[in-house]
From TrEMBL:
Binding site for substrate: L33, Q34, G35, R48, T93
Region (Disordered): 136-157
Gene3D superfamilies: Aldolase class I (3.20.20.70)
Record field: catalytic activity: 6-carboxy-5,6,7,8-tetrahydropterin + H(+) = 7-carboxy-7-carbaguanine + NH4(+)
Protein name per its UniProtKB record: 7-carboxy-7-deazaguanine synthase
Source organism of this protein record: Haloarcula mannanilytica
Cofactors named for this entry: [4Fe-4S] cluster; S-adenosyl-L-methionine; Mg(2+)
Residues annotated to bind Mg(2+): S61
Lineage of producing organism: Archaea, Methanobacteriati, Methanobacteriota, Stenosarchaea group, Halobacteria
Length: 260
């Protein structure tokens, strides 16, 4: 599926502009192994949309957020591309795929065809669509693109990111509606106080149970070298706090190659 360059820095909030009604901005579509979470190792088709309502400084899909690139495709076209692969699992990811209304239509159609769907989301949007696994990655304070960490070097997104990054009521609703894993990108031990506090707040707000097994700690790092520096520390934190450790299998196997 081809990809076209969009204007750098565009904040795609909804599928609009030159697109046909109902189109999705697709950055890439490929088959690989799920690299993270409880389904790590499962062959899956990945549908990566472009555009995000946040700007994590360590974003590992830079060309869906800081400099979004994509071509517009209708849901039928995306389904046809998925069906070219021999896989039962589909991962809808981004960017933030749930900011696009047509993601709901795609998820409905995938469910009708019997696919298992995982949605990788930052937990700021609740969709009206079937999802088999909501892989929710709440963004911690350490994700905020301050001027010192901003890839563009100006910190322009810091306030917007900080304002949008967490919504406990939205996280609670996701936990209530879907089978959910809460997956935290851990940059250091200092993240744990915020993780512990947020989990307690979600547990208080949600009617559904959030088990320790539903909480996953994942090392920050986009390359093997970066993961080598953080992997053991995060594994030790998982042991200490009783949460699950999740690898980044695709990075271990293919480093930072696109389409993996």
């Amino acid at each position: 599926m081809p990809v076209a360059n969009d204007a750098p820095g565009v904040d795609i909030e909804r599928a609009d502009g030159d697109a046909e009604a109902g189109d999705l901005p697709i950055n890439e579509l490929f088959q690989s192994l799920q690299g993270e979470g409880r389904l790590a190792g499962v062959p899956s088709v990945f549908v990566r949309t472009s555009g995000c309502n946040l700007r994590c400084w360590f974003c590992d899909s830079y060309h869906t957020s800081w400099e979004p690139t994509h071509d517009w495709f209708g849901v039928d076209d995306v389904l046809a591309a998925i069906e070219e692969y021999d896989a039962d699992h589909v991962v809808l990811t981004g960017g933030e795929p749930l900011i696009h209304d047509s993601s709901e239509a795609l998820l409905e159609r995938l469910a009708d065809r019997g696919y298992h769907t995982t949605v990788e989301t930052n937990g700021t949007v609740v969709p009206d669509a079937p999802i088999d696994l909501a892989s929710v990655s709440p963004k911690l304070a350490s994700s905020t693109p301050t001027a010192e960490r901003d890839p563009d070097g100006d910190g322009e997104w810091a306030d917007r990111h900080e304002e949008r990054r967490l919504d406990v009521s939205t996280l609670a609703e996701l936990v209530e509606r879907y089978d959910t894993q809460l997956k935290f990108v851990v940059t250091g031990r200092e993240d744990m106080a915020e993780i512990e506090g947020l989990i307690e707040r979600v547990r208080d707000a949600a009617s559904a149970r959030v088990r320790d097994d539903d909480v996953l700690l994942m090392p920050e790092g986009q390359t093997r070298e970066q993961l080598e520096a953080t992997r053991e520390m995060v594994a030790d934190l998982a042991l200490e706090y009783g949460y699950r450790y999740t690898p980044r299998l695709h990075v271990d196997l293919w480093n930072d190659a696109p389409g993996t």
